[in-house]
Amino acid sequence: MTSLGLRASLLALGIVGLLFGCWPEGNATAADASALRWSKVSATGDLQAQVRATAAKVLPAVVSIASTVMVHDQAFSDEGLPFGMFKDVPPRRQYGQGSGVIVSSDGYIITNNHVVADAVDVEVILADRRQFKGRVVATDPKTDVAVVKIHASGLPTAAWGDSSALAVGDFVLAIGNPLGLSRTVTFGIVSAVGRADVGVADVEDFIQTDAPINPGNSGGALVNTNGELVGINTAIASPTGGSVGVGFAIPSNMARTAMQSLIKTGRVVRGFLGASTQDVTPLLAKIFHLPDVKGSIITDLQAKGSAERAGLKRGDVVVRFDGRDIMDSGHLRNLMAAAAIGSKHRVELLRDARLMQAELTVQEAPRERQRKAQATETAPTAHPLSGVIVDEITPALARQMDLPANSGLVVTDIEDGSLAEVSGLQPGDLLLELNRQPIPNFSTFQRLAEPLRSTDLALLLINRQGSLLYIPIQSE
Protein backbone atom coordinates (compact mmCIF):
# COMPACT_ATOMS: atom_id res chain seq x y z
CA MET A 1 0.00 0.00 0.00
CA THR A 2 1.36 3.43 -0.89
CA SER A 3 1.74 6.08 1.77
CA LEU A 4 -1.15 7.97 0.16
CA GLY A 5 -3.32 4.87 0.33
CA LEU A 6 -2.35 4.34 3.97
CA ARG A 7 -3.34 7.91 4.89
CA ALA A 8 -6.66 7.47 3.07
CA SER A 9 -7.34 4.25 4.98
CA LEU A 10 -6.56 5.92 8.33
CA LEU A 11 -8.81 8.86 7.46
CA ALA A 12 -11.68 6.54 6.62
CA LEU A 13 -11.13 4.68 9.89
CA GLY A 14 -11.14 7.98 11.77
CA ILE A 15 -14.53 8.90 10.31
CA VAL A 16 -15.94 5.55 11.42
CA GLY A 17 -14.56 6.23 14.88
CA LEU A 18 -16.34 9.56 15.04
CA LEU A 19 -19.58 8.10 13.78
CA PHE A 20 -19.72 5.10 16.05
CA GLY A 21 -17.66 6.26 19.02
CA CYS A 22 -14.96 3.60 18.60
CA TRP A 23 -11.33 3.56 17.53
CA PRO A 24 -9.54 0.18 17.30
CA GLU A 25 -6.66 0.08 19.72
CA GLY A 26 -3.67 -2.21 19.98
CA ASN A 27 -4.56 -5.70 18.88
CA ALA A 28 -8.32 -5.20 18.70
CA THR A 29 -9.83 -7.41 16.00
CA ALA A 30 -12.41 -6.45 13.41
CA ALA A 31 -14.94 -8.51 15.35
CA ASP A 32 -14.17 -6.50 18.52
CA ALA A 33 -14.66 -3.25 16.59
CA SER A 34 -17.92 -4.53 15.13
CA ALA A 35 -19.22 -5.59 18.54
CA LEU A 36 -18.34 -2.20 20.03
CA ARG A 37 -19.98 -0.41 17.12
CA TRP A 38 -23.25 -2.29 17.50
CA SER A 39 -23.23 -1.81 21.25
CA LYS A 40 -23.18 1.95 20.59
CA VAL A 41 -26.03 1.64 18.11
CA SER A 42 -27.98 -0.35 20.69
CA ALA A 43 -27.34 2.35 23.29
CA THR A 44 -28.70 4.93 20.85
CA GLY A 45 -31.82 2.81 20.47
CA ASP A 46 -32.15 2.62 24.25
CA LEU A 47 -31.93 6.44 24.50
CA GLN A 48 -34.63 6.85 21.89
CA ALA A 49 -36.88 4.44 23.74
CA GLN A 50 -36.21 6.31 26.99
CA VAL A 51 -37.01 9.68 25.42
CA ARG A 52 -40.25 8.29 24.00
CA ALA A 53 -41.21 6.85 27.38
CA THR A 54 -40.38 10.13 29.13
CA ALA A 55 -42.50 12.17 26.72
CA ALA A 56 -45.44 9.79 27.11
CA LYS A 57 -45.09 9.92 30.90
CA VAL A 58 -44.97 13.71 31.29
CA LEU A 59 -47.20 15.01 28.49
CA PRO A 60 -50.49 14.34 30.35
CA ALA A 61 -49.31 16.56 33.23
CA VAL A 62 -48.50 19.62 31.09
CA VAL A 63 -51.37 22.07 30.52
CA SER A 64 -52.07 25.11 28.39
CA ILE A 65 -52.96 28.33 30.23
CA ALA A 66 -54.89 31.13 28.56
CA SER A 67 -55.04 34.39 30.55
CA THR A 68 -56.91 37.66 30.15
CA VAL A 69 -55.49 40.95 31.44
CA MET A 70 -57.14 44.38 31.43
CA VAL A 71 -54.77 46.94 29.93
CA HIS A 72 -55.03 50.70 30.46
CA ASP A 73 -53.61 52.64 27.54
CA GLN A 74 -52.17 56.14 27.61
CA ALA A 75 -54.54 58.86 26.41
CA PHE A 76 -53.34 61.76 24.26
CA SER A 77 -54.75 65.18 23.49
CA ASP A 78 -55.27 66.52 19.98
CA GLU A 79 -51.85 68.11 20.27
CA GLY A 80 -50.30 64.74 21.03
CA LEU A 81 -49.71 65.52 24.70
CA PRO A 82 -50.45 62.76 27.23
CA PHE A 83 -53.56 63.28 29.34
CA GLY A 84 -52.48 60.68 31.89
CA MET A 85 -52.48 56.95 32.30
CA PHE A 86 -56.15 56.46 33.10
CA LYS A 87 -58.11 59.55 32.17
CA ASP A 88 -61.20 58.72 30.11
CA VAL A 89 -59.57 55.70 28.54
CA PRO A 90 -61.58 52.48 28.91
CA PRO A 91 -59.45 49.41 29.56
CA ARG A 92 -59.07 46.80 26.87
CA ARG A 93 -58.66 43.06 27.16
CA GLN A 94 -55.28 41.54 26.32
CA TYR A 95 -54.93 37.80 25.89
CA GLY A 96 -51.88 35.69 26.63
CA GLN A 97 -50.97 32.04 26.48
CA GLY A 98 -48.47 29.90 28.34
CA SER A 99 -48.01 26.51 29.90
CA GLY A 100 -48.17 24.93 33.33
CA VAL A 101 -47.38 21.67 35.07
CA ILE A 102 -49.79 19.71 37.28
CA VAL A 103 -47.89 18.76 40.44
CA SER A 104 -50.74 17.46 42.61
CA SER A 105 -53.65 15.22 41.64
CA ASP A 106 -56.13 17.62 43.27
CA GLY A 107 -55.38 20.43 40.83
CA TYR A 108 -52.36 22.50 41.89
CA ILE A 109 -50.45 23.76 38.85
CA ILE A 110 -47.10 25.52 38.82
CA THR A 111 -46.39 28.10 36.12
CA ASN A 112 -44.65 31.45 35.63
CA ASN A 113 -45.75 34.66 37.29
CA HIS A 114 -45.61 36.45 33.94
CA VAL A 115 -48.12 33.97 32.48
CA VAL A 116 -50.90 34.86 34.95
CA ALA A 117 -49.84 38.18 36.56
CA ASP A 118 -52.81 40.56 36.92
CA ALA A 119 -55.06 38.14 35.05
CA VAL A 120 -58.80 38.66 35.48
CA ASP A 121 -59.56 35.32 33.86
CA VAL A 122 -57.52 32.11 33.66
CA GLU A 123 -58.49 29.14 31.50
CA VAL A 124 -56.64 25.84 31.92
CA ILE A 125 -56.75 23.28 29.12
CA LEU A 126 -55.57 19.76 29.95
CA ALA A 127 -53.76 17.42 27.61
CA ASP A 128 -57.02 15.47 27.17
CA ARG A 129 -58.69 18.75 26.09
CA ARG A 130 -60.79 19.19 29.21
CA GLN A 131 -61.11 22.85 30.20
CA PHE A 132 -61.25 24.35 33.70
CA LYS A 133 -61.46 27.80 35.19
CA GLY A 134 -58.21 28.46 37.01
CA ARG A 135 -57.77 30.41 40.24
CA VAL A 136 -54.45 32.15 40.84
CA VAL A 137 -53.53 31.08 44.37
CA ALA A 138 -50.48 33.35 44.68
CA THR A 139 -47.55 34.64 42.65
CA ASP A 140 -43.92 35.50 43.31
CA PRO A 141 -42.49 38.01 40.81
CA LYS A 142 -38.99 37.68 42.30
CA THR A 143 -38.62 34.09 41.09
CA ASP A 144 -41.30 34.35 38.36
CA VAL A 145 -43.23 31.48 39.97
CA ALA A 146 -47.02 31.29 40.26
CA VAL A 147 -49.50 28.71 41.52
CA VAL A 148 -52.86 28.10 39.83
CA LYS A 149 -55.60 25.82 41.21
CA ILE A 150 -58.36 24.06 39.30
CA HIS A 151 -61.30 22.21 40.79
CA ALA A 152 -60.54 18.62 39.80
CA SER A 153 -59.25 15.36 41.22
CA GLY A 154 -57.40 12.29 40.03
CA LEU A 155 -55.25 14.34 37.68
CA PRO A 156 -51.98 13.12 36.12
CA THR A 157 -48.94 14.72 37.75
CA ALA A 158 -45.27 15.30 37.05
CA ALA A 159 -42.85 13.97 39.66
CA TRP A 160 -40.41 16.46 41.18
CA GLY A 161 -36.73 15.90 40.45
CA ASP A 162 -33.59 17.21 42.15
CA SER A 163 -32.26 20.09 40.06
CA SER A 164 -29.05 20.24 42.11
CA ALA A 165 -28.09 16.88 40.57
CA LEU A 166 -28.09 18.33 37.04
CA ALA A 167 -24.77 18.65 35.24
CA VAL A 168 -23.76 20.30 32.00
CA GLY A 169 -24.34 17.84 29.17
CA ASP A 170 -27.31 16.04 30.76
CA PHE A 171 -30.17 15.27 28.37
CA VAL A 172 -33.42 17.16 28.99
CA LEU A 173 -36.84 17.53 27.37
CA ALA A 174 -38.83 20.77 27.21
CA ILE A 175 -42.59 20.21 27.13
CA GLY A 176 -45.20 22.89 26.63
CA ASN A 177 -47.40 24.77 24.19
CA PRO A 178 -45.17 27.04 22.09
CA LEU A 179 -46.87 29.37 19.62
CA GLY A 180 -50.22 27.73 20.44
CA LEU A 181 -49.00 24.29 19.39
CA SER A 182 -50.12 22.09 22.27
CA ARG A 183 -48.28 19.00 23.51
CA THR A 184 -44.95 19.97 21.95
CA VAL A 185 -41.80 18.14 23.05
CA THR A 186 -38.25 19.27 22.26
CA PHE A 187 -34.97 17.62 23.18
CA GLY A 188 -31.54 18.97 24.12
CA ILE A 189 -28.93 19.16 26.82
CA VAL A 190 -28.20 21.24 29.89
CA SER A 191 -25.93 23.96 28.51
CA ALA A 192 -25.12 25.59 31.85
CA VAL A 193 -26.35 25.78 35.44
CA GLY A 194 -26.39 28.62 37.94
CA ARG A 195 -27.04 31.35 35.38
CA ALA A 196 -27.68 34.65 37.17
CA ASP A 197 -27.97 38.30 36.10
CA VAL A 198 -29.95 37.28 33.03
CA GLY A 199 -32.40 40.11 33.73
CA VAL A 200 -35.54 37.99 33.82
CA ALA A 201 -36.24 37.88 37.57
CA ASP A 202 -34.81 39.32 40.77
CA VAL A 203 -33.77 35.91 42.11
CA GLU A 204 -32.03 33.99 39.33
CA ASP A 205 -30.27 30.65 39.36
CA PHE A 206 -31.33 29.44 35.93
CA ILE A 207 -30.71 26.20 34.10
CA GLN A 208 -29.66 27.01 30.56
CA THR A 209 -30.67 24.56 27.85
CA ASP A 210 -30.54 24.27 24.08
CA ALA A 211 -33.79 22.28 24.00
CA PRO A 212 -35.85 24.63 21.78
CA ILE A 213 -38.14 26.92 23.80
CA ASN A 214 -40.45 29.47 22.18
CA PRO A 215 -43.19 31.90 23.29
CA GLY A 216 -45.93 29.83 24.90
CA ASN A 217 -43.45 27.43 26.53
CA SER A 218 -43.33 29.69 29.60
CA GLY A 219 -44.42 27.75 32.69
CA GLY A 220 -43.91 24.40 30.99
CA ALA A 221 -41.82 21.44 32.08
CA LEU A 222 -38.13 20.80 31.75
CA VAL A 223 -37.61 17.13 32.61
CA ASN A 224 -34.71 14.70 32.70
CA THR A 225 -34.78 11.38 30.87
CA ASN A 226 -36.32 9.72 33.95
CA GLY A 227 -39.37 11.94 33.48
CA GLU A 228 -38.63 14.00 36.60
CA LEU A 229 -39.42 17.71 36.70
CA VAL A 230 -36.08 19.51 37.02
CA GLY A 231 -37.10 22.98 35.84
CA ILE A 232 -39.89 25.35 34.86
CA ASN A 233 -39.23 26.91 31.45
CA THR A 234 -39.37 30.67 31.72
CA ALA A 235 -37.40 32.65 29.12
CA ILE A 236 -35.22 32.66 26.04
CA ALA A 237 -32.36 34.82 24.84
CA SER A 238 -33.06 35.62 21.22
CA PRO A 239 -32.56 38.50 18.78
CA THR A 240 -35.54 37.27 16.76
CA GLY A 241 -38.07 36.30 19.44
CA GLY A 242 -37.77 32.63 18.50
CA SER A 243 -35.54 29.86 19.76
CA VAL A 244 -31.86 30.14 18.94
CA GLY A 245 -30.80 27.46 21.38
CA VAL A 246 -30.50 29.60 24.50
CA GLY A 247 -33.37 28.94 26.90
CA PHE A 248 -33.67 29.32 30.66
CA ALA A 249 -35.60 27.36 33.29
CA ILE A 250 -36.15 27.92 37.00
CA PRO A 251 -34.54 25.02 38.88
CA SER A 252 -37.12 22.65 40.31
CA ASN A 253 -35.70 22.95 43.83
CA MET A 254 -36.22 26.72 43.79
CA ALA A 255 -39.62 26.46 42.11
CA ARG A 256 -40.87 23.78 44.50
CA THR A 257 -39.79 25.74 47.59
CA ALA A 258 -41.45 28.89 46.25
CA MET A 259 -44.65 26.99 45.43
CA GLN A 260 -44.91 25.39 48.86
CA SER A 261 -44.47 28.78 50.53
CA LEU A 262 -47.03 30.41 48.23
CA ILE A 263 -49.64 27.76 49.01
CA LYS A 264 -48.95 27.88 52.75
CA THR A 265 -48.56 31.63 53.36
CA GLY A 266 -49.45 33.38 50.11
CA ARG A 267 -45.90 34.66 49.75
CA VAL A 268 -42.34 33.39 49.58
CA VAL A 269 -40.32 33.67 52.77
CA ARG A 270 -36.67 34.34 51.97
CA GLY A 271 -33.46 34.76 53.84
CA PHE A 272 -31.71 38.10 53.61
CA LEU A 273 -28.05 39.09 53.91
CA GLY A 274 -28.80 42.60 55.06
CA ALA A 275 -26.03 44.06 52.92
CA SER A 276 -25.37 45.50 49.49
CA THR A 277 -22.86 43.55 47.46
CA GLN A 278 -20.82 43.82 44.29
CA ASP A 279 -19.26 41.28 41.95
CA VAL A 280 -15.50 40.89 41.82
CA THR A 281 -13.90 42.17 38.60
CA PRO A 282 -10.30 41.50 37.50
CA LEU A 283 -9.32 45.03 38.58
CA LEU A 284 -11.07 44.72 41.96
CA ALA A 285 -9.45 41.34 42.49
CA LYS A 286 -6.09 43.02 42.02
CA ILE A 287 -6.96 45.94 44.30
CA PHE A 288 -8.31 43.69 47.06
CA HIS A 289 -5.40 41.23 46.67
CA LEU A 290 -7.73 38.33 45.88
CA PRO A 291 -6.39 34.98 44.64
CA ASP A 292 -8.98 34.77 41.83
CA VAL A 293 -11.86 36.66 40.23
CA LYS A 294 -14.78 35.39 42.28
CA GLY A 295 -16.58 36.21 45.50
CA SER A 296 -18.97 38.93 46.64
CA ILE A 297 -17.76 42.28 47.98
CA ILE A 298 -19.74 43.90 50.83
CA THR A 299 -20.37 47.53 49.87
CA ASP A 300 -22.91 48.57 52.52
CA LEU A 301 -24.52 47.11 55.64
CA GLN A 302 -28.08 47.33 56.91
CA ALA A 303 -28.31 48.24 60.58
CA LYS A 304 -28.91 45.12 62.70
CA GLY A 305 -29.06 42.97 59.58
CA SER A 306 -27.69 39.45 59.28
CA ALA A 307 -24.33 40.61 57.90
CA GLU A 308 -23.75 43.32 60.50
CA ARG A 309 -24.69 41.01 63.37
CA ALA A 310 -22.20 38.47 62.03
CA GLY A 311 -19.44 41.07 62.19
CA LEU A 312 -19.05 41.67 58.47
CA LYS A 313 -17.71 45.05 57.34
CA ARG A 314 -17.66 47.15 54.22
CA GLY A 315 -14.89 45.89 51.95
CA ASP A 316 -15.09 42.28 53.13
CA VAL A 317 -15.13 39.75 50.30
CA VAL A 318 -17.32 36.71 50.99
CA VAL A 319 -15.62 33.75 49.31
CA ARG A 320 -17.36 30.71 50.83
CA PHE A 321 -20.75 29.90 52.37
CA ASP A 322 -20.89 26.64 54.34
CA GLY A 323 -17.81 25.49 52.46
CA ARG A 324 -19.22 26.27 49.01
CA ASP A 325 -17.24 28.69 46.86
CA ILE A 326 -19.10 31.94 46.13
CA MET A 327 -18.85 32.77 42.46
CA ASP A 328 -20.55 36.17 42.53
CA SER A 329 -23.13 38.28 44.35
CA GLY A 330 -26.05 36.53 42.69
CA HIS A 331 -24.77 33.18 43.93
CA LEU A 332 -24.52 34.48 47.51
CA ARG A 333 -27.97 36.06 47.29
CA ASN A 334 -29.52 32.80 46.10
CA LEU A 335 -27.93 30.80 48.91
CA MET A 336 -29.20 33.30 51.47
CA ALA A 337 -32.68 33.36 49.94
CA ALA A 338 -32.93 29.56 50.12
CA ALA A 339 -31.67 29.32 53.73
CA ALA A 340 -34.18 28.74 56.52
CA ILE A 341 -34.99 31.75 58.67
CA GLY A 342 -32.99 31.54 61.91
CA SER A 343 -30.52 28.99 60.56
CA LYS A 344 -26.81 29.51 61.23
CA HIS A 345 -24.13 29.30 58.55
CA ARG A 346 -20.36 29.51 58.37
CA VAL A 347 -19.14 32.33 56.16
CA GLU A 348 -15.53 32.64 55.03
CA LEU A 349 -14.32 36.05 53.94
CA LEU A 350 -11.20 37.93 53.00
CA ARG A 351 -10.52 41.13 54.93
CA ASP A 352 -7.38 42.99 53.93
CA ALA A 353 -6.24 39.79 52.19
CA ARG A 354 -6.57 37.80 55.44
CA LEU A 355 -8.92 34.81 55.54
CA MET A 356 -11.50 35.05 58.34
CA GLN A 357 -14.59 33.17 59.42
CA ALA A 358 -17.93 34.34 60.80
CA GLU A 359 -21.18 32.72 61.88
CA LEU A 360 -24.18 34.25 60.19
CA THR A 361 -27.79 33.85 61.37
CA VAL A 362 -30.30 34.23 58.56
CA GLN A 363 -33.01 36.84 58.96
CA GLU A 364 -36.18 37.14 56.91
CA ALA A 365 -36.05 39.54 54.01
CA PRO A 366 -38.18 42.65 54.54
CA ARG A 367 -41.43 42.62 52.65
CA GLU A 368 -41.31 44.94 49.66
CA ARG A 369 -44.16 47.32 49.18
CA GLN A 370 -45.32 45.85 45.92
CA ARG A 371 -48.72 46.14 44.39
CA LYS A 372 -51.16 44.49 46.74
CA ALA A 373 -54.62 43.23 45.97
CA GLN A 374 -57.47 43.31 48.44
CA ALA A 375 -58.12 39.71 47.49
CA THR A 376 -60.38 37.12 49.02
CA GLU A 377 -60.50 33.36 48.52
CA THR A 378 -64.22 33.49 47.78
CA ALA A 379 -66.11 34.41 44.68
CA PRO A 380 -65.65 37.95 43.26
CA THR A 381 -69.11 39.08 44.46
CA ALA A 382 -68.45 37.97 48.05
CA HIS A 383 -66.70 41.21 49.05
CA PRO A 384 -67.61 44.81 48.20
CA LEU A 385 -63.97 45.67 47.40
CA SER A 386 -63.17 42.52 45.46
CA GLY A 387 -61.18 43.31 42.32
CA VAL A 388 -59.77 46.57 43.71
CA ILE A 389 -55.98 46.77 43.62
CA VAL A 390 -54.25 49.41 45.71
CA ASP A 391 -50.69 50.39 46.45
CA GLU A 392 -48.93 52.59 48.96
CA ILE A 393 -47.61 55.69 47.23
CA THR A 394 -43.85 55.57 46.95
CA PRO A 395 -41.83 58.48 45.54
CA ALA A 396 -41.36 56.56 42.30
CA LEU A 397 -45.10 55.84 41.96
CA ALA A 398 -45.90 59.46 42.85
CA ARG A 399 -43.69 60.65 39.99
CA GLN A 400 -45.11 58.08 37.59
CA MET A 401 -48.75 58.93 38.32
CA ASP A 402 -48.22 62.63 39.12
CA LEU A 403 -49.45 62.22 42.70
CA PRO A 404 -48.48 63.97 45.92
CA ALA A 405 -45.79 62.01 47.75
CA ASN A 406 -46.59 60.24 51.02
CA SER A 407 -50.32 60.66 50.41
CA GLY A 408 -51.53 57.22 51.48
CA LEU A 409 -53.03 54.67 49.08
CA VAL A 410 -53.86 54.84 45.40
CA VAL A 411 -56.11 52.61 43.31
CA THR A 412 -53.86 51.18 40.59
CA ASP A 413 -56.34 48.80 38.94
CA ILE A 414 -59.93 47.60 39.16
CA GLU A 415 -61.40 44.42 37.79
CA ASP A 416 -63.63 45.05 34.82
CA GLY A 417 -67.29 44.74 35.81
CA SER A 418 -66.58 44.54 39.55
CA LEU A 419 -68.94 46.14 42.07
CA ALA A 420 -66.36 48.84 42.85
CA GLU A 421 -66.01 49.78 39.17
CA VAL A 422 -69.78 49.88 38.68
CA SER A 423 -70.03 52.12 41.76
CA GLY A 424 -67.68 54.65 40.18
CA LEU A 425 -64.26 53.95 41.70
CA GLN A 426 -61.45 54.61 39.20
CA PRO A 427 -57.75 53.84 38.88
CA GLY A 428 -55.76 56.84 40.12
CA ASP A 429 -58.19 57.63 42.96
CA LEU A 430 -56.47 58.33 46.29
CA LEU A 431 -58.09 56.48 49.20
CA LEU A 432 -58.42 58.60 52.32
CA GLU A 433 -61.06 56.84 54.42
CA LEU A 434 -62.93 53.53 54.58
CA ASN A 435 -66.22 53.69 56.49
CA ARG A 436 -65.17 57.01 58.04
CA GLN A 437 -61.87 55.60 59.30
CA PRO A 438 -58.57 57.07 58.00
CA ILE A 439 -56.46 54.65 55.92
CA PRO A 440 -52.88 55.98 55.88
CA ASN A 441 -51.32 52.67 54.84
CA PHE A 442 -52.09 49.28 53.38
CA SER A 443 -52.10 47.42 56.70
CA THR A 444 -54.85 49.73 58.02
CA PHE A 445 -56.82 49.33 54.81
CA GLN A 446 -56.51 45.55 55.05
CA ARG A 447 -57.57 45.56 58.73
CA LEU A 448 -60.67 47.59 57.97
CA ALA A 449 -61.58 45.80 54.73
CA GLU A 450 -61.12 42.16 55.71
CA PRO A 451 -64.13 41.92 58.10
CA LEU A 452 -66.55 43.28 55.48
CA ARG A 453 -69.17 40.86 54.22
CA SER A 454 -70.89 40.78 50.84
CA THR A 455 -73.89 42.76 52.16
CA ASP A 456 -71.84 45.36 54.06
CA LEU A 457 -71.35 48.92 52.92
CA ALA A 458 -67.85 50.09 51.95
CA LEU A 459 -67.95 53.90 52.09
CA LEU A 460 -64.79 55.32 50.56
CA LEU A 461 -63.62 58.91 50.80
CA ILE A 462 -61.36 59.57 47.84
CA ASN A 463 -59.30 62.37 46.35
CA ARG A 464 -59.77 62.51 42.59
CA GLN A 465 -57.55 65.13 40.98
CA GLY A 466 -57.95 67.47 43.96
CA SER A 467 -61.67 66.92 44.54
CA LEU A 468 -62.90 64.95 47.56
CA LEU A 469 -65.71 62.48 46.89
CA TYR A 470 -67.58 59.82 48.84
CA ILE A 471 -68.14 56.58 46.92
CA PRO A 472 -70.51 54.05 48.51
CA ILE A 473 -70.00 50.45 47.40
CA GLN A 474 -72.64 47.91 48.33
CA SER A 475 -74.35 45.02 46.61
CA GLU A 476 -78.09 45.36 46.06
Walk me through the structure:
This protein is 22% helix and 35% strand. With 476 residues, the protein is an alpha+beta fold. A 7-stranded antiparallel β-sheet has the order 7-6-1-4-5-9-8. Strands 25, 26, 27, 28, 29, 30 and 31 form a 7-stranded antiparallel β-sheet that branches. A 6-stranded antiparallel β-barrel has the order 11-12-13-16-15-14. The termini are far apart. The model is unreliable at 1-28, 34-38, 79-87 and 368-381 (pLDDT under 50).
Features of the shown structure:
Thrombin, subunit H, alpha+beta, Pdz3 Domain, disordered N terminus, single chain, 22% helix, globular
Fold topology:
Elements: H1 3-20, H2 30-58, E1 62-71, E2 75-76, E3 82-84, E4 92-102, E5 108-112, H3 113-116, E6 119-125, E7 131-133, E8 135-140, E9 145-149, E10 159-160, E11 171-176, E12 184-195, E13 206-209, E14 221-224, E15 228-236, E16 247-251, H4 252-265, E17 271-272, E18 275-279, H5 282-287, E19 296-301, H6 306-309, E20 317-321, E21 324-325, H7 329-338, E22 344-351, E23 354-361, E24 363-364, E25 372-373, E26 388-392, H8 395-401, E27 409-414, H9 419-422, E28 430-434, E29 437-438, H10 442-449, E30 458-464, E31 467-473
Parallel strand pairs: 10-15
Antiparallel strand pairs: 1-4, 1-6, 2-3, 4-5, 5-9, 6-7, 8-9, 11-12, 11-14, 12-13, 13-16, 14-15, 15-16, 17-24, 18-19, 19-20, 20-21, 20-22, 22-23, 25-26, 26-27, 27-28, 28-29, 28-30, 30-31
